[in-house]
Specification:
globular; alpha+beta; 3 strands
Length: 77
């Protein structure tokens, strides 16, 4: 909420699009869109990966949430 990045769950799997979700810009707004049929762990991983693109140093996060974001950031580099 502090970074104003909405998270949406949608049906993404179509014949033309085989994505699972992630960070995107839609109509000029940053969003994280996640395939709704994924399991909880995969949804959490995609959310952490999207959130890892931003600076969270000045925002309070639960330690487990911060760790998931840091792990996603490390896996991406």
């Amino acid at each position: 909420a502090e970074l104003r990045i909405p998270v949406r769950y949608a049906s993404l799997a179509t014949e033309e699009l085989h994505g699972r979700g992630g960070l995107c810009i839609f109509r000029g707004e940053r969003r994280i869109i996640i395939e709704r049929t994924l399991g909880c762990r995969e949804k959490a991983r995609l959310l952490a990966t999207g959130l890892a693109q931003f600076d969270w140093d000045s925002v309070f996060l639960l330690p487990a949430v911060r760790q998931a974001i840091e792990e996603a950031r490390a896996a991406d580099s």
